[in-house]
Amino acid sequence: MNIKVHRGLDQIGGCITEIWTTTSRVFIDVGRNLPGCGELSTPKEEEQLVESIFASNKKKYEAVFYSHGHEDHVGLFTYIPKGVDQHMSEGTKVLLDIKYSILLDAACKQVEELQKIDGYDEEYSLAMSQLADADNKIKHLNHIDIWQRTPPRQEPKPIVVGDIKVTPFFNSHSIYDSHMFLIEADGKRIWHTGDYREHGYMGKGLFPTLRKYATDIDVLITEGTMLKREDKCIHEREVSRKMASVMQAFKYVFVLASATDIERLAAIKEAANSAKKPLCVCSLFMKKTMEFFTEKESKLSKGLFSFVPLFYSDKLFGKLKRKGFTMVVGPSQLDRVLELKDKLPEEETLLIYSVWNGYYKLQEQIDITPKYLQFHDMFQNVVDIHTSGHADKATIKKVIETVKPKEVIFIHKEADAKL
Ligand SMILES: [Zn+2]
After folding, report:
1. Ligand 1: distance of its center to the CA of 174 in Å?
2. What CATH number is given to the structural domain containing 186?
């Protein structure tokens, strides 16, 4: 078995790993470069990159596996040549489908609105291209095969690509239904971690899974996002506890968080419950992901991943003003939140900033997405409460000691990062 890391050895994100035998090959992730990490390319350049990777080293049996639904792992899926099978977890596909369907609806509405106005200007052609992009993504997504998460106490089943066997294993990351992989061929065994951590609610299965299945591993390919940081990451439970304690002190609490991060949403919900503040959302994306998480995970998690938020509308304003609330919001709801916040007393209103702080602290990130900083600056009372979606250095060390591979390859890391 041969391995080539096309991207990811010296950058966080944009991961593409190819593994092949004489007759078969698989790719783990075909991701887009993250803003500020690696070269930013145009869609045309990205398409050419994927084309050139797939044009060389061709094999009879070929497939792509996606570890999870973040752009830097799945972002280039529309460029994969026809005839190459693509696989992702059920949850990954549903989350992407929710995202693109909402974008498609929004673009359709905007095109309709702009058609009522005379003239074909820049705004109109932008809306048309957004519509075409979302439509294209949904069409491609429909052709992707899914695997189901292995139910508790059952053996995970491999997916066979020629003479390569790929077995996905559920793990904890800052997006739902993320997976690691065991790749077997030619009597060799490779373990690819994808992005992972132990300090999430779903992270307690990490070491039991590795001890049971990551045995006799020849090569361990692990992410190393946090290699340059010495500090230990706090558990999601601690995130929740910190949130609950600040929520007590403010009547109106907004929490900036990701709609696809089931564990963070649970941490927020638990905190809101203990602070006795009704949980609200004001975006359709957040509403739909919460519905999906509840449907899939409520029972198995004994209610931890059960969400019944109020969907905010102006009609609810009076009631919520009286009672107080916790509202989970994403960066795209900036205008909506500004409007609502202006009707509330400043001294009783708090923003819990619960995403990566680099989005508002690093100039290159602010240049690309200024909304995080705008959110942060919009509130007089702000507190950062967050923990990483990635394994800290101590966990990476423990993973290597547990797996005891013959070789380790670090990907998804900064160029000069070392263990
Ligand atoms: Zn990720």
Report:
1. 7
2. 3.60.15.10
Task: Tell me the two tokens of residue 187.
Answer: 């009597």
CA of 19 to the centre of ligand 1 (A): 20
Same domain, 124 and 249: no
Supply the pLDDT for residue 413.
Answer: 83
Q: Are residues 404 and 367 in the same domain?
A: no
Report yes or no on 418 lying in a domain. Answer: no
The phi, psi pair for 163, rounded to 5°, reads: -100, 15
pLDDT digits (tens, 9 = 90+) for 218-235: 999 999 988 888 888 999
Q: How far apart are the first and last CA of the chain?
A: 26
277 Cα: distance to centroid of ligand 1 (angstroms): 30
**What pLDDT, on the 0 to 100 scale, is given for residue 119?**
63
Cα(173) to ligand 1 centroid in Å equals 7
Looking at residue 34, its pLDDT comes to: 79
Q: Which amino acid is at 75?
A: G
Say which residues have a Cβ less than 8 Å from residue 295's Cβ, sequence separation at least 6: none
d(CA 62, CA 54): 9
CA angle 199, 201, 205 (to 5 degrees): 80
Give the total residue count for the chain: 419
User: What spacing in Å lies between the alpha carbon of 313 and ligand 1's midpoint?
Assistant: 32
Q: Where would I find the H helices in 259-348?
A: 262-274, 284-297, 317-323, 334-341
| Same domain assignment for residues 379 and 395 | no
In a domain, 303, yes or no: yes
**Structural domains counted in the chain:** 2
| Backbone torsion region of residue 19, taken as left when φ is above 0, otherwise alpha when ψ lies between -120 and 50, otherwise beta | beta
Spell out which residues have Cβ within 5 A of ligand 1, the ion: 70, 195
In a domain, 106, yes or no: yes
> What is the CA(384)–ligand 1 centre distance, in A?
20
Q: How far is the CA of 60 from the centre of ligand 1 (A)?
A: 30
Residues of the chain under the 50 pLDDT cut: none
Single out the residue of 264, 243, 294 nearest to residue 388, CA to CA: 264
Whether residues 17 and 140 share a domain: the answer is: yes
- Ligand 1 centre to CA of 156 (Å) is 22
Q: Are residues 181 and 245 in the same domain?
A: no
pLDDT of residue 13: 80
